[in-house]
Each structure stands twice: as structure tokens, then as C-alpha cells.
Design goal:
The protein is α/β, with parallel strands linked by helices and 386 residues long. The chain has helices spanning 12-23, 39-49, 59-68, 79-87, 105-113, 123-140, 149-157, 183-186, 191-194, 204-212, 214-226, 265-273, 305-315, 319-335, 341-354, 363-381; strands at 2-7, 28-35, 53-56, 75-78, 94-97, 117-120, 144-146, 166-173, 234-238, 244-250, 255-259. Helix 2 (39-49) links the parallel strand 2 (28-35) and strand 3 (53-56). Helix 14 (319-335) runs antiparallel to helix 15 (341-354).
């Protein structure tokens, strides 16, 4: 029995992680739930899965949930201290880091330090702190098992690799809802349109990132750390049907690709049950119904999130944190209607241009950079996210 702590249990990844646990009660159990403030769903999850601990980041929401669960014996904790307690819970074997944003960095570092395996969905952890978490995981003997569909596909294609050398990683992208649009057309698009992803069901932040190709840029950075490959060996290819989730090309020209339906429960389950491929709650892919698979080069002139991500990765140090922090702010403001879609790229470019790079930032320095970016953007655009 593998005991799972789900950080971000009320979000898209968390809900689907619990689907997987529900399907395999003989192998998986829920040791803890962590969330922001959605206590309605959290209460239902807690009563069904009976975890030892529920960590609620929002203090007021935690107090309400504590009262609601007073008849269960489930302990409710709050704030960042609560998330850190979840991450280091002795009764948990693996932590699903399904929470979105840089808030996931400290709990992930704490979980690795406590010797927990990580089912990694919080890409910001690798983007901003890859230089910290990968050596720490190696030192602690911790497995970092990717949950993103693309990184799970790469991970699967690398199984049984032995001493074979990689020629390149092919990271696939759907192209998002604005695929084919020109720069002038993007000035008119709305947040509602950006949230209408053609093939995946994801949370709002990641869905907008997919529309801008920022998400793919973040995935390039994540791949660099997860698989220890330089940026020039990571190639992005648009695969609009979202059926080929990524591939690895070896030196002999062989390409191993992973295919499957667009259902995040497959990579989540593989991270939790590795190395086994078990029955999944996802609907199987039926090749008889496929009309074809197509491929395109990404339009990096229109969707500048991807080339800016490569620039940040090659610069290194604290620059990926700047890219990520500026995007978190711009993404949130765009979803509220405060800026146009192309202004996301303007904000990224501007914040990167003025930043003085820190060569190997500590966790505290990473968050200091984020706070400085937030403050500068608030002052420049006169917009608050409070």
C-alpha cells in the first residue's frame, strides 16, 4: 500500500489524483489533503478518503473546515506551516505536488528533504529551483516522477534506455485555442476565448499559459532539469490532436513516442504506480476512429512565450524565476481583463530586460525575486491582484 499526500486536492490535478486512488484502493490510500480555500469540495474529499491530515492555506477557510470536520477526528492545519506539515507527514510515502504556482516550491523542497517521493505536477518547482531540488533528490534517494503528460511520455520513452545516448527530446504541444492566429488578431482575444482549450481540461492559469505557449516554455525548462539535457536538445513540435504526448530520439535514429488519450489521469496514475501500467479510469484510445496525426512547427514570432522561455533558460540563474513570476502576474491580470493578450509578452520581455541575474539563487532569493517582480508590475500598471 502506497500512502499518498495530495497537495492541491481541489484543483484539476488533485481531483484526478483522487480518481486514481479511488480506482486502486488495494494499492493506494490518501494520507493527507492540501488545498487553498475550496472547503466545500475539501469536506467531501475528506469524508470519502478519511486522511489523517487536511492542510488549508487560507487561515479563515481552515477554521471553517475544522468545525465542519469536528466529528471525524481528521486534523486540520493551516497556512504555509500546514502545507509543510503535509509535505513531511511521516504517514505519507509520496507527495503529489498538484498545486499551481510558486507556492509549491517550499513544500516540495521540504518533502524531498523528508525523503518523500514526488509525483511532480508543480512545474514552477523545476523552473525556479531545479538547481536546488535535483541535487537534493539525488542526495536523499528520492524519486521525482513527472505528472505532466509530456514529461511522463518522455519518462516512459526513457525506460530501459541503459547506456543509450539521447539525440533530442521532442516535446509536443497542442498549439492552444489561438493556433493559426496572427499577432494583430491576438490584440482582440478575450480570457474566455483563451480558456477554451481544444483538447485538454485544465485549470485556468495553465490553460491561459497553454494559449500563450508560455506553458510549453515552462515545460522546456522542466525537461532540462528532469532529464539532464541542454536546451538545444529539446525541440517543441505542435501536434494538434494531442495524442502523441512527447518522444525521445536516440543516436541511432530510433524515436520512441508515447501515445494515449488526452486524459491527465494516465500520467498521474503512472507516477503513483510506476513502473506498472495498470487499468486506468481513462477511456482507451481507439485507433480505428483516428482520421490522422499532423505536425507543425510552433509560430514563435506570434507566440513569443516559447522563445522568451528558451532565452531565460539559457541565461540561467534567477532569470527563469523572473520569467515565471512575471508570467504569473500577467496571466492573472489578463484573466481579470486588465491587459490584452500580447501585453503578457511585453511584461515578460520588460521584466527580463531589467533584471540583474543571481547566479544560483537560494529559495529565499527566489521568493524575493518574485516579490520584487510583483511590486514593480503593480506600480507600473497600477493594478493590484488583492
Amino acid at each position: 500500500m502506497k500512502r499518498v499526500a495530495v497537495l492541491g486536492s481541489t484543483g484539476s490535478i488533485g481531483v484526478q489524483s483522487l480518481d486514481v486512488i479511488r480506482m486502486h484502493p488495494e494499492l493506494l490510500s490518501c494520507a493527507a489533503l492540501g488545498l487553498g480555500r475550496n472547503i466545500e469540495l475539501a469536506e467531501r474529499q475528506a469524508r470519502e478518503f478519511c486522511p489523517k491530515l487536511v492542510a488549508v492555506y487560507d487561515e479563515e477557510a481552515a477554521n471553517v473546515l475544522r468545525g465542519r470536520l469536528s466529528d471525524t477526528g481528521i486534523r486540520v492545519v493551516s497556512g504555509m506551516e500546514g502545507l509543510l506539515e503535509l509535505a513531511t507527514l511521516p504517514e505519507a510515502d509520496v507527495v503529489v505536488t498538484g498545486i499551481v504556482g510558486m507556492i509549491g516550491i517550499r513544500p516540495t523542497v521540504a518533502a524531498i528533504g523528508a525523503g518523500k517521493d514526488i509525483a511532480l505536477a508543480n512545474k514552477e518547482t523545476c523552473v525556479c529551483a531545479g538547481h536546488i531540488i535535483m541535487p537534493l533528490a539525488e542526495a536523499k534517494g528520492v524519486r521525482i516522477l513527472p505528472v505532466d503528460s509530456e514529461h511522463s511520455a518522455i519518462f516512459q520513452a526513457l525506460q530501459g534506455r541503459a547506456g543509450s545516448k539521447i539525440r533530442r527530446i521532442i516535446l509536443t504541444a497542442s498549439g492552444g485555442p489561438f493556433r493559426g492566429k496572427r499577432p494583430e488578431e491576438l490584440r482582440q482575444v478575450t480570457a474566455k476565448e483563451a480558456l477554451a482549450h481544444p483538447t485538454w481540461s485544465m485549470g485556468p492559469k495553465i490553460t491561459v499559459d497553454s494559449a500563450s505557449l508560455v506553458n510549453k516554455g515552462l515545460e522546456v525548462m522542466e525537461a532540462r532539469w528532469l532529464f539532464d539535457v541542454p536546451p538545444e536538445k529539446i525541440e517543441v513540435l505542435v501536434q494538434p490532436q494531442s495524442l502523441i504526448h512527447s518522444a525521445v530520439e536516440y543516436e541511432d535514429g530510433s524515436i520512441l513516442a508515447q501515445l494515449g488519450p488526452s486524459d491527465m489521469r494516465i500520467p498521474i496514475q503512472y507516477a503513483l504506480t510506476w513502473p506498472l501500467h495498470l487499468p486506468s479510469p481513462a477511456t482507451p484510445l481507439d485507433f480505428r476512429t483516428l482520421s490522422g496525426l499532423t505536425f507543425e512547427q510552433p509560430d514563435t514570432e506570434t507566440f513569443q512565450g516559447l522563445p522568451l522561455a528558451y532565452e531565460a533558460l539559457r541565461t540561467g540563474g534567477s532569470m527563469p524565476t523572473v520569467f515565471n513570476a512575471a508570467n504569473e502576474w500577467a496571466n492573472a491580470v489578463f484573466r481579470r481583463g486588465g491587459i490584452t493578450f500580447p501585453e503578457i509578452y511585453d511584461i515578460l520581455r520588460g521584466e527580463m530586460a531589467r533584471h540583474q541575474v543571481i547566479a544560483a539563487p537560494t529559495v529565499d532569493e527566489i521568493f524575493a525575486v518574485q516579490e520584487e517582480i510583483d511590486a514593480h508590475c503593480r506600480e507600473k500598471y497600477k493594478i493590484s491582484l488583492e
